Prior knowledge:
Blueprint: H1 2-29, E1 36-37, H2 40-47, H3 51-63, E2 67-71, E3 77-82, H4 84-89, E4 95-100, H5 106-121, E5 125-130, H6 134-142, E6 148-152, H7 153-161, E7 166-171, E8 181-186, E9 198-201, H8 206-219, E10 224-227, H9 233-238, E11 244-248, H10 249-254, E12 260-264, E13 276-281, H11 285-294, H12 297-308
Parallel strand pairs: 4-5, 4-6, 9-10, 9-11
Antiparallel strand pairs: 1-3, 2-3, 6-13, 7-13, 8-11, 8-12
Helix pairs in contact: 1-3, 2-3, 5-12
Amino acid sequence: MRRLHQDMDKHLLHKKKGMLIDKMARDFLSREENERLESISVLQEKYDVSRGTVQNALNYLKEIGAVRLISKGHLGTFFEYIDYQVLQKCLWKNTISGMMPLPYSKLYEGLATALYHSFKDHELRLNIAYSRGAASRMEAVVGGSYDFAICSKYAAIAAIENGEEIEIALDFGYQSYLSEHVIVFNKDSEVGITDGLRMGIDVHSYDQKSLTHEIIKNSGKEIELINLPSHQIVQATQHGIVDAGIWNLDEIEEKGHADLQLMKIPKHAFESYSNAVIIIKKHNTLIKSILTQYLSISHIRDLQLKVKNNMLIPSY
């Protein structure tokens, strides 16, 4: 019986140390080299554990090469070196989860491929789910179901201005989300925004809805709006259910929709729609640190364009 109690105490002690290592690793992921580390007493109070447990966890992180500390006398102890990859492996949750649009275009396929390659290069596990609608992806991030999501810069800024608890962690730049939007018209329709035009709109899409309203406002015409999921707008236009609608030029060109007429939208007016950004829950310093440490914007763009130009086979 005494042995059983001893084993249980040992297990609880190990579990407590493991939980503290996890907390410390998360904390240290957001630190920088040459930054001052709090004293043992402060860490003890911060993590609500004994002084010995703090010292043991800190020694463990030093032994595995996650951090190297240097004492500067009365100035305190500082991080001399931080290995973020080793720290990430100390986390109990060591799989990063994200959401992005369905990879129906080469740019999306390229982005998904680049993300997987980048995380794999650093021996990190990545799980990506695919979902239409930026709002639903943002909701999953705010709710904690996913660590990050990809959407257009415009959608992210609009959501932040509306009070969503998100922030932009990375911006991949112009034409990383899509080349441009166009207005598609039925082959039998007149090309142009005219009175009485039946135009498809997706009220659940930040981008498509906003662009549609902006185009109508600038035209000054009386338009009939018909609510449709954005991915059905091309098909609905082809079959005459609507006369026109706004959609992604990349998909239209790649699928060769020769039975549609296109009207371009001035690029300069809507540049933020073409930027792909990664959004995270506001103040999620752990995920922000991991993303900024391991994802190179230039490397991701390079891989994305290689997929788009058929120089790299998509893998995601």
